[in-house]
Amino acid sequence: MSMTQAGFAHEGAQETNYLQAKKGLMSWLYTVDHKRIGVMYLASVLSTFLLGGVMALLVRAELFTAGETIMGADTYNRVFTLHGLVMVFLFIIPAIPAAMGNFVLPLMLGAKDVAFPRLNLASFYVYCVGTVMALYAVVAGGVDTGWTFYTPYSASVNGPVVMMTMAAFVLGFSSIFTGLNFIVTVHKMRAPGLTWGRLPLMVWALYATSIIQVMATPVLGITLLLLAMERVLHVGIFDPAMGGDPVLFQHFFWFYSHPAVYIMILPGMGIMSELVTTFSRKTIFGYRAIALSSIAIAVISFLVWGHHMFVSGQSVYAGMIFSFLTFLVAIPSAIKVLNWTATLYKGSISLAAPMQWALQFLILFTIGGLTGIFLGTLGTDVHLHDTYFVVAHFHYVMVGGTVTAFVGGLHYWWPKMFGRMYNEKLATVSSILFFIGFNVTFFTQFVMGSQGMPRRYYNYVEKFQTLHQISTMGTWLIGAAFLLMAGYLIASLKSGAKAPANPWGARSLEWAIQSPPIEHNFHEIPTVQEGPYEYPTTVGPAKH
Amino acid sequence: MASSGSFWMPEQGSTIAADVDTLFDFIYYLNVIFFVLITAATIYFVVKYKRKSDDQLASSNVGHNTALEAAWTFVPLVLVIICFVWGFRVFLDQSVAPANALEVQVKAEKWKWNFQYSNGSQTLNELFAPAGRPVKLVMSSKDVLHSFFVPNFRIKSDVVPNRYTSVWFEAKEPGDYQIYCTEYCGTGHSSMLATVKVLPAEEFDKAMLKGEWPGQSGEGRDPVEWGKELYVSKTCNACHSVDGSRLVGPSFKGLFGKDEKMTDGATVKVDENYIRESIMDPNAKIVEGYAPAMPSFAGQLSDGQTDALIAYIKSLK
What we know:
The complex is a heterodimer of chains A (544) and B (317).
Chain A: H1 25-29, H2 34-62, H3 73-109, H4 117-139, H5 153-156, H6 161-188, H7 201-233, H8 246-278, H9 287-300, H10 316-344, H11 353-376, H12 378-384, H13 388-418, H14 424-450, H15 465-495
Helix pairs in contact in A: 2-3, 2-4, 2-15, 3-4, 3-6, 3-7, 3-8, 3-13, 4-6, 6-7, 7-8, 7-9, 8-10, 8-13, 9-10, 10-11, 11-13, 11-14, 13-14, 14-15
Chain B: H1 17-48, H2 66-95, E1 102-109, E2 112-116, E3 122-124, E4 126-130, E5 134-141, E6 146-150, E7 155-159, E8 165-170, E9 175-181, E10 194-199, H3 201-210, H4 223-233, E11 259-261, E12 267-269, H5 272-280, H6 303-315
Parallel strand pairs in B: 1-5, 4-10
Antiparallel strand pairs in B: 1-2, 2-3, 5-8, 6-7, 6-9, 9-10, 11-12
């Protein structure tokens, strides 16, 4: 991106960066610098990812044999619940928007910070409070309802379910704060010349995500509050024993949680657009289609919740309408995948670590998306609902999609965040290990599911033993991939080569400033004169 | 069996299974075609346009192509609309039972399935059905959500308290078909299994007239062996171990002849009558340290089955 030179440091003269600007623990705890808050979020979500990942390994280890392998049924039920809760509420929802979004959004906009820096810090502390409450619920005896808290089961079991639901409620506020902050920042703090049509697609994705966060999260809050009221005050809302309607809870829950699926995947799609263009040195194919499809997804995602309930006893006609709307929301996602693939055409393609993860995303997310057609189709969903087929489908989307995008983004912005390069060879080994391990773990689950293996089962019938064992072995490869990654990333902080301002040759604003950036990002607010993907080519400048 | 099942789907046991599988196959081929196209294009582009020198530039500057974009919006849209319409038609067939279907009442509770027939008889965790005739299940739950799933029949429906839901099937051939609970319901969720026992139609009619189902008399069987089977098939195993470990209820190991302390302070010696009472009227006496969580099995076990269970518990020294 060409721009006025005044805003940037001169090459070679490293100035005091945001990590060095202030010293001591207090300088972090009281910081309102979006970059430091992003880094604190990053440390938190990586810790929760580790916790959720260990739970996943335990779940799969238990399923290595039918019956008791390493734990009893009640322990198993708590462990899989914890895996889901931690991964959804503590890791994947805040992972990209709060950790990476916080770091890069103001940089991409040419701004010195987000619109409300104090609210940003508050969001982090609210997240911490929610996390502590959730972990307390675990220590105090565990919750075994599954991450979906379906009533009347969740209203009837012992254990600190109320504490856990309140934790999810508090975490919801943290999302709302971040979402609100991003919406205002994108509207009000864009650098001169940075029109909506020149925004990096990561910004569009974060913007669409924020809209969902602000609009959907209150519904989760209301639902969980009603659930807590029922538990504590015995007001019959969902529990049939008190005159409530158990299916009502599912409507409330999915009214939030389906849009939340897009809170999880949209930011990952944003990262994809940055990675594919940077590592192909080419303008994005279909900028407008990708930007608008994010907004289309944000809107339609509110209208498809009933597809989680085709066999819940809801009416056949409700099923019909939700099935139709579900197919409509599939189209914008398909368009994005095809646009990314087309962007590769005649590019100058580098297979650096971030791109390896982007290519994995393309393949794995395609499988996740396509297998969704089986589940959106009423006739086949009846058979596949609540089986391992569904488990495999959403892991291909959430892990194969969001987590690979998160890891790709982490490798992409790592040099910007910490000013160090990591070991590319080890990064390649890690991404290959993950790709194999992931498919071994979850492809087998598609087969088990369509053969009839129900989800959330502690025990299983003999015919599934072999597939379960293969699946479990896959998780060991995934575990090894992440262990290796943790190793070389931590090592890079100490001994990695110093990162230049723009190691990948990318064009958006965050790469025009030194790595790591100075505390206030830009000495002077830059003036933007062209779009974010204007790479020179052998046939002249990009045409739109 | 009509078909032995495929790599993806279990064998087809009901009349609608073939329709579901044809639809499944259609979507599967769509999946394969699109996956191969996208993956092949990705791999081809990556190999062909791989950067060979650090300063190599892209050789295209095309930012969009209206015709291509319209095509890849329109074609998938048409295809998913086909899936939608086809899927809805199959769903209607799955949802609407033929008017002449035989009705069976299903009661689900943690962690067992009870089936009640029009002749007044009941069976536990075994659903008897005639081959070649439609059967409609009218289901409800006594406690939390459960879900009734028979993979071979391609049918599933949640079972909800205070509300009736239904599924129907017409089994093609006599045989045993697995029933799973597919809505998470706690400790014994994965042991909440049952079997559809499809009988030839004449045999089914005879049993209905007589009011006694195959396997209920246990004639000429070793009671301990039979009891051991019933321990699993009637889901006693969801709450009672046979190795001494503590589950929801007391373990059966070494139970017979033991003195048990009750919540009301009394001590009871475990004998045949105590076990029988505990099965039929479980809340009459509660062993200290346990919750009154067990449902009654009265009317759901024949005398022969109860005897066999007692014989089995006796054998667990």
